[in-house]
Specification:
By secondary structure, this protein is mainly alpha-helical. The chain has helices at residues 8-28, 39-46, 50-62, 87-96, 98-123, 126-144, 148-165, 169-173, 175-187, 197-211, 215-233; strands spanning 36-37, 66-69, 73-76. It has eleven helices and three strands; from the N terminus they run αβααββαααααααα. The chain has a three-stranded antiparallel sheet. A hairpin with a 3-residue loop joins strand 2 and strand 3 (73-76). Helix 4 packs parallel to helix 9 (175-187).
Length: 246
Amino acid sequence: MTGQTEGPMNRRNLHERLRDQIGQDIVAGRLAAGTIIKAEDLRAGYDVSLSVVREVVRVLESLGMLRPVRRVGLVVLAMDEWMLLDPLVIRWRMTQAPARQLRSLTELRVAIEPEAAGLAAQHAPAEAAEEIMRLAARMRSTGRNGDVESFLEADVAFHRAVLGAGGNELFAAFDTVIGEILAGRTGAGLMPQYPHPDALQWHFDVADAIGRQQSGRAKEAMYKIVAKADDEMSGVWADEPRGPRR
């Protein structure tokens, strides 16, 4: 970062790079809980202005990762203070601690998404149900062609649509988390180029059940989807201990 000017675009790049670097250092434990950071040290170390440092610190404070202490500096906080479902924190953990992050998020999906599919079958407007079916068809087409990028886009849109179709605002707010989970899985090379035919069919089954207002069937098909994802990735976290570690 050294020697860079701070035009509007470059300032944003400096902000994002410094934010991501510090966030990843905290997630990875290179900046352990209790560590004291000085804003001036960040300014000098990364050769950026104090205004950029302050912007980054505000973001990390809002995520529960740093706390300013008067006359002391910025204190790094433990993981139980973090906003763990914020997309930035998920992304940093996916980069620095992928096994534990994937396990936690996949287990959360297993708990949430079948219920969301059941609610969608009960409450989805007709146009939402039709869009979910279109996305299932798009997943089948792109999956069969081995188009990983387009399949991911359709997969994310499908699960977001299901989460939002049931009229529960908290399930709907989970959609950004789903996007990070699926993108992280693909980025980690854990998504096959050609999805399993059963998985493609189960997405169709979810869509069809929602369209027919069959709540139990929608829940069952969605459970098959997330349970298969759990099973396919379980080897990634097989040796990962549970507990307070990052």
